[in-house]
Amino acid sequence: MPTKGRNVIVPLDMRTEAVIAERVLSDVSQVNGLGDQVPYNCPGCGGGLWEMDTPGEKRFRCRTGHSYTGSALLASQSEKIEEMLWISLRMFEERKNLLTSIAKASRRPGNRNEHRRRAKETQGYIDRIRGMLLVPGSDGPQDTLTHVKALMAEPRQAKSTR
């Protein structure tokens, strides 16, 4: 609530953040004045993020105005990962269907077998993605998101698909 008769001095960093939030694009030098650029991307726009020079919980901001606390950034990344997994699942299913259709229409046995082999390989990717997304006995999307977050928290060894 504003106080009558008193001038409140707004810190420079808060004024700069307000200016950045009001604009569609801001000057990178303005954002540089608020903190250091970090090797993370903004889940909202894909741009680079800066870690704000603030005490307490970590805060991040991109140059277009998106702002996150550390926990909000993690949650937003998890949501974006889940979204991308659903898109990947759909794309792999479409690819398998196309390969199957091409195999059926192919007149050359070598091509038909190659397309069938690739469709079967694609089914393996579909099964893996579904395994990450669809939790047995889940009641809805929140269970799926919880499962994806748990998978991301587990330390895993990268496995080559080749």
DSSP strand (E) fraction? Answer: 5-15%
Q: Which structural category do the helix and sheet elements fall into?
A: alpha+beta
Number of strands: 4
Question: N-to-C terminal Cα separation, in Å?
Answer: 62 Å
Query: What is the gyration radius calculated from CA atoms?
Result: 24 Å
Major beta-sheet overview: 4 strands, antiparallel
Low-confidence stretches: 157-162
Shape: elongated
Q: Quick check: average pLDDT?
A: 79
Task: Return the string of H and E elements.
Answer: HHEEEEHHH
Name the features:
single chain; 162 residues; alpha+beta; 4 strands
Describe the structure.
This protein is α+β, with helices and mostly antiparallel strands. The chain is 56% helix and 12% strand. It is built from 5 helices and 4 strands. The chain has a 4-stranded antiparallel beta sheet. Strand 1 and strand 2 form a beta hairpin. Helix 3 packs antiparallel against helix 4 and helix 3 packs across helix 5. 9% of the residues are buried.
Short overview:
The protein has 162 residues and is α+β, with helices and mostly antiparallel strands.
